[in-house]
Amino acid sequence: MTHKTKGIVLKYIFYGDTSLIVTMYTELFGIQKYIVKGVRKNTKTGNNRISFFQPGAILDMEVYKNDFKQLQFIREYKWGYRYENLYFDVIKNAIATYMVELFLNAVNETEDNEELFYLLENYLINTDRSGNKYSANVPLFFSLELAKLIGFQINKTFTSEAHILDLYAGEFTDVIPSHSYYIEGNTAEITAYINNNPQDAFTGNLLINRKIRQELLNSYQIYFTLHIENFTRLKSLPILQTVI
Predict the structure, then answer these.
(1) Domains, the chain, ranges and CATH?
(2) Distant-in-sequence, close-in-space partners of 16: CB < 8 Å, separation ≥ 6
(3) Where is the DNA replication/recombination mediator RecO N-terminal domain (predicted)?
(4) Average pLDDT score over the chain
(5) I need a labelling partner for 67 at 20 to 30 A (CA). Which of 99, 109, 164, 186 fits?
(6) Is the pTM value of this prediction over 0.90?
């Protein structure tokens, strides 16, 4: 049986001489793996087709779905959205690579979750369309929005008293935790702003310097590590931190 669905490419590996196994997050079925045959053939057509499966690619597809198989097949595919800048702009590409890798490491749902799909789709499309001066803080907003949707959003309110963010408990507090997984003061206050104002992700309303941004990215990496079993440090993070 075939179904029409959107999908976002998260990664691919080579399979055989000419094919790929592609991991995607789909609108209808969550995480799925597809065998895509013939896209690595040494022909002009084959070389063009592999571009459809770069990480971050958004596709409209008709797919086969067999609940008893781990690997599925794609019957037809075309661009769901064609990027104008994202694959060619160093900053935007680093941001997109980070978001896709974070999503891949944090999400393992084989059931539909349209909110998760649309979160990643909207952030990728808006990153492509936005000006670079508004892009630097996008990974911070995306990280906290993703955390909310997968079940460990930051709770309680930042105040002059509750100025400490306990990353292990995921909440603001006025007591320094007994462990070392916390941030306080300015970085905690900025985190509260990001957490409460997701609509500002692409506006440029949040003005912070590079040092603070890098500290926050490192803290959010720790936050995911504390709340997701076997979460590993992202390879894309050092690259991202060199360009934003």
Answers:
(1) 1-82 (2.40.50.140), 85-244 (1.20.1440.120)
(2) none
(3) 1-78
(4) 94
(5) 99
(6) yes
